[in-house]
Please model this.
Amino acid sequence: MAITSIKNLKEFSTNNDRFEGAHTLCPGCAHSMIVRELMNCTDDNLVISANTGCLEVSTAVYPFTSWDTSWIHIGFENAATSVTAAEVMHKVRKKKGTLKDGDAPVKFVAFGGDGSTFDIGFQWLSGAMERGHDFTYICLDNENYANTGGQRSSATPIGATTSTSVAGTHSYGKKEKKKDIVSIMAAHGSPYVAQLAPNKWKMMAKGFQKALETEGPCFINTVSPCCTEWKFDPKDTINITDLAVDSLMFPMYEIIDGHELNILYRPKNILKVEDYLGAQGRYKHLFKPEYKHIIEKIQSDIDEDWARLQRREEARV
Amino acid sequence: MSVEQQDLKLKASENRGKSQLEAGFDLLGWDEVTQGSVLPSFDGDASNVAHQKAEEREYSDYNSYTATVASWRVQKPVFNIDVCIDCQNCWVWCPDSSILSRDKQMLGIDYDHCKGCEVCVEVCPTNPKSLLMFNEYTDLGDALASWPEKKKKEKK
Model:
C-alpha cells in the first residue's frame, strides 16, 4: 500500500486534497479536518461510505459532491454494511479478473457519527466486525446528534445539556455515563482499535495509516468537537481538543488484537477537568453550587479510567 | 510580495464561483429525482487524482470545488507571506481545504471555499501572526499595511 510520508508537516502538506471545499459543514467543524487527514494519509484508491449524519448531509448537497473518491451514501445504520459489501464485491471481481485495473490497491473506509456508531448502527457495525472484512471504520465522535438539533446519544458524557436532556432547576443534564465504545470494539477481537484526536495530527495520521495497512476490521474513535452543540467559538476547535486530550477526558490509546493496549499520549501537565468543562457552554450549569458535585464525579471517573488504562497497558490482557 | 500575487486564484472550471442557478444545470425537480443517483466528481480520467494538484484536475460541474461558500463569511483571513514560516499548521487544520499549499509552501487562501472560521489564525505560531482576520470588505492592501509589529515578550 502506498502510504504518504508523515515525517513532518511540510512533507505531509505535499499531498493533494481529495476532499473538496464548499461542503456545508459548520465553520470550524472538526469532521472535515479528520476526513481530510485520512484521505491525505494514503495515495491508494479509496472506497468510502458514510452513515447519515452531519458529514453525509453536508458533503453531498444535490447537485454537488465534495468527494474525489468513490463515495456511497446510505441509511443511518449501514455505513459498515455497504462498505463491507463493496469490499466483498471487489474481492470476488478481482478473483474473476473482471476488474479494469485489478492490481490497483483499494482501501475501504466507513465514516459514521457517534449517533450512528454508538446507537443506531451499532448492530450492523458489530456484525461487520464479526465477519472480519478488511475495512476501517472511523467514528467522528461529537457526543450528540448534531445534525438533527443536538439530541443526546449514548456518547454524550454525564452532565452535558442537550436538547433532550436539558439542564435546569431539576436536572443537571444527561445522567448516564458515556459508552466505552473502544473497549467494546476491542472485545470483537479487532486487530486494531484506537481513540485519536485531531489536534495531534501526526499521532492521528499514524493511527490512520496503521488501520489502513492492517488487514481485517479496524475501528477508530476520533474526537470531533462540535462548535454548534458544545457551544464554543468556531476558532477554538483545536484549543478545545487540546483541553480534551490534556484533561484526559479523551485519552489517546490503541488496542491491538483486543488485548495489547498502548497509551499513545501522556500529557506532561494533566489539566483539571474544570478547564475543559468551563470552555464549553453545554457544561455551564455545572459551575452552579448545587451541581458542583457532578464536576467532582466527572473528575473521579476520569482518574479511575486513566488508572485502569495504565493497568491494562501494563498487564497486556 | 505584491497584492496581485497574494490574490492567487486557481481556475479549474469556468463555472467556479457561480451559484448553481447561474451555472444553468439541468436540474431535476424534487418529485422527479429517482431513488439512488450517481454524481461523477470528474469529467475526464480520475484514476490518478491522488497525484494531481487541484488545478490539474478536470472537475465536473457536480464537484463542490466548482461551488462557493464565500457568502458565509463575515470576516476573512488575510495572509502575510513576509511573516510566514511555512509550518503548514493552517493547512493541516483548515476544515474547508482552502489553504493553498504547493511544494511545501503556503501561497494563500482560497476565498471561494473559506468560511471564515478563524481556526488558521488560532493555530498560526508566528509572532506577529501571519494570518489575521479582517472584515470581509477590507481591501487586501489596507489589511497588509495595518499589520501589527512584532510583540516583545513580557518580562516575568
Notes: The first strand of chain B starts at residue 75 and ends at 79.
